[in-house]
From TrEMBL:
Belongs to the histone deacetylase family. Signal peptide: none annotated. InterPro entries: AcuC, HDACs, His_deacetylse_dom, His_deacetylse_dom_sf, Ureohydrolase_dom_sf. CDD domains: HDAC_AcuC_like. It comes from Streptomonospora wellingtoniae. Gene3D superfamilies: Histone deacetylase domain. Pathway: Ketone degradation; acetoin degradation. Residues 22-318 form the Histone deacetylase domain. Coiled coil: none annotated. This is Acetoin utilization protein AcuC. Keywords: Acetoin catabolism.
Length: 393
């Protein structure tokens, strides 16, 4: 399944940096790009690695953010003074020099990816440094200053898109994107995440289904801590494909946080790289089937910086290019040397966790005592009827 892929990249994306003690370290993106280069992902004839044409302008950011907030971000990046009103200068969102410039570059890269897909330049497009899905219209939130994911969706609507689907597989609820389109039936937001009972941001319950006139267009699958590959994929297959097939988006935008992995230090799901790879191929197929192949791929969370994120997102970009990387491959020695030099950590030796993932379809039978099945059924009962679908089938 060879596909054209536009990758928006500039070394300046690593300037989105909250400091050496912060979990969201840009080295994870640096290591991802290095591993992709080692495997020749960007050398494939159908892949275009493109510089970012321009950061998002104030007018563009204004599609999803208040002008007062944009000015506050600029001010904080110049003075390095906290601004409590806008949640700038918290432990989650420390101020850093030129914060606006770094954040608007990330946002511009995601809009560039959306533009490449919408204008037919490329079937798929990616900003692996993007996916900052928590930022709110008038505040920073959860390591996110500007919500590039929401901005990409809003830009597509401005161009005339009538149906955009946003699927978020980060371990955290995609609260900012949901909030910005909660009343808009042109946007279907689907988030699979760890339950708000055990994880930030404390939202994303199945009962959050959309505002008046958009009921059923916010979809939340809140999974219990400890959910593994087979159970997570069971939930995904029970909710995401049927809704996308019914909605028939013109563009599929996905946020690909890698923090569902068992090694992630900030969350409690138990996926492996092998389970995550299954997700990538499923989303690729769904983009082909339901959105005419138009797929915008964004990064997201992921705080195991060496063992997980680089391998996960290298598999993701390879999948989006239409030529996956075998999970059985050894990681290149030159990349391992770079990892040691750059981080001082021991790099992974293989591109897999060595898991075999078996999934039993939800349609094969519902276990009322199983907490994952309870989560699936809660979501289906809340949203399927709004789309004319029977939650029991």
């Amino acid at each position: 399944m060879a596909c054209s892929l536009h990758v928006a990249w500039d070394d300046g994306l690593t300037s989105y940096n909250f400091g050496p003690q912060h979990p969201l370290a840009p080295v994870r993106v640096e290591l991802t790009m290095a591993l992709c280069r080692e495997y020749g992902v960007f050398d494939r004839p159908n892949v275009a690695l493109r510089p970012i044409e321009k950061p998002a302008s104030d007018d563009l950011l204004g599609l999803v953010h208040d002008s007062d907030y944009i000015e506050a971000v600029k001010r904080a990046g110049a003075t390095l003074e906290p601004d409590d009103r806008y949640c700038l200068g918290t432990s989650d969102n420390p101020v850093f020099p030129d914060m606006h410039d770094a954040s608007s570059l990330v946002a511009g890269a995601s809009v560039q990816a959306a533009s490449a897909v919408w204008n037919g330049e490329s079937e798929h497009a990616a900003n692996i440094a993007g996916g900052l899905h928590h930022a709110m219209p008038a505040s920073a939130w959860g390591f996110c200053v500007y919500n590039d994911a929401a901005l990409a969706v809003a830009w597509l609507l401005e161009q005339g898109a009538k149906r955009v689907a946003y699927v978020d597989v980060d371990v955290h609820h995609g609260d900012g994107v949901q909030a910005m389109f909660y009343d808009d039936p042109r946007v279907l937001t689907i988030s699979l995440h760890e339950s708000p009972l055990t994880l930030f941001p404390g939202t994303g319950r199945p009962s959050e289904t959309g505002g008046p006139g958009a009921e059923g267009y916010a979809v939340n699958v809140a999974l219990p801590a400890g959910t593994n590959d087979s159970r997570w994929l069971r939930a995904f297959e029970a909710v995401v494909p049927p809704l996308l097939r019914e909605f028939q988006p013109e563009v599929l935008v996905t946020q690909q946080g890698a923090d569902t992995h068992a090694l992630d230090p900030l969350a409690n799901l138990m996926l492996s790289l092998d389970g995550q790879r299954r997700t990538y191929s499923a989303l690729h197929r769904l983009a082909k089937e339901t959105a005419g192949g138009r797929w915008v791929v964004l990064g997201g969370g992921g705080y195991e910086l060496v063992q997980v994120v680089p391998r996960a997102w290298t598999h993701l970009l390879a999948e989006a290019s239409g030529a996956e990387i075998s999970p059985d491959l050894e990681t290149p020695q030159s990349w391992r040397d770079f990892v040691r030099e750059r981080t001082g950590e021991v790099p992974p030796l293989y591109m897999t966790d060595g898991r075999t993932v078996e999934v039993t379809p939800f349609e094969a039978g519902f276990d009322p005592e199983d907490r994952v099945d309870q989560a699936i059924q809660a979501t289906r009962r809340e949203v399927f009827p709004s789309h004319g679908m029977d939650p029991s089938l």
